[in-house]
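BUG-114 | component: ligand-complex export | severity: low

The export step for zinc ion jobs runs without errors, but we want the raw record kept on the ticket for reference. Input record follows.
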Amino acid sequence: MHEASIALSVLEIAIDNCRKAGYNKIESIRLKIGRASGIMIDALLFAFNAVKADTIAAEASVIIDEVPVSGLCSSCGKDFVTEEKYILCCPECSNTSFNIKTGRELEIIDMEVS
Ligand SMILES: [Zn+2]
């Protein structure tokens, strides 16, 4: 499962950052996840709950900021944002030539430690 390996690497990075900062407990982790990243948030949270057991993040909650997909159309020049997971064409002019600007993120934005 894709989400299990992502959960594990998020956990490892979080633990590493926490230890480097001289703390030994993670209270919460805030993640930024783009809608076009292909990550299923429910599956990720489920996987995270499984991998965090018996670590310094055992009681950590995960907060997820979902980033909508947005892009810039090369044809009409419009910036657009969509609620969809995928963009097949520009919502303004239906041209298929555009650049995705946001929606593929996967990063830890911040953490609370103690
Ligand atoms: Zn357009």
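Assignee comment: Attached the raw record above. DSSP finds two helices and six strands in the chain.
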